[in-house]
């Protein structure tokens, strides 16, 4: 054997418990998903403020449930699925209200498609 091999010190490999490693991975994934959701919410809120010219604080006036599924015709309309929970943000002059769905998207919804509690 050579002189180089004589002076090498073997360090034991530190091993993580598999449960701890999986738990740490799931926490990291959760944090990453939360950050993605927050960025998406900020983007939707920015779109809402620009499109609907809403400068005030966003407050929920009421909670409603969608009666039926309705596809959106324009970007300003909110697509609905039957039974979906919506937060009513603002009432307008016409037959529509501005709502927000669980995914954070804003849009116009006709009052006839909503069931208020």
Structural class: alpha+beta
The end-to-end span amounts to 84 Å
Going by CATH, the architecture would be Roll
Strand content: 15-25%
Question: For the residues shown, what is the average pLDDT?
Answer: 81
Q: Which residues form runs of ≥5 with pLDDT under 50?
A: none
Number of domains: 1
Provide the gyration radius in Å.
26 Å
* Biggest sheet strand line-up: 4-3-2-1-5
User: What is the name of the CATH topology?
Assistant: SH3 type barrels
By CATH's scheme, which homologous superfamily applies?
A: SH3 Domains
CATH class call = Mainly Beta
The total of helices stands at 2
Task: Name the overall outline.
Answer: elongated
Strand/helix succession: HHEEEEE
Main sheet? 5 strands, antiparallel
GO cellular component, one term: plasma membrane
Organism: Lanius ludovicianus
InterPro entries: FYB1/2-like, hSH3, SH3-like_dom_sf
Coiled coil: 20-47
Short description:
The chain is an alpha+beta fold. The chain is built from 2 helices and 5 strands, in the order ααβββββ. It has helices spanning 3-6, 18-52, and strands spanning 62-66, 85-91, 96-100, 106-110, 114-116.
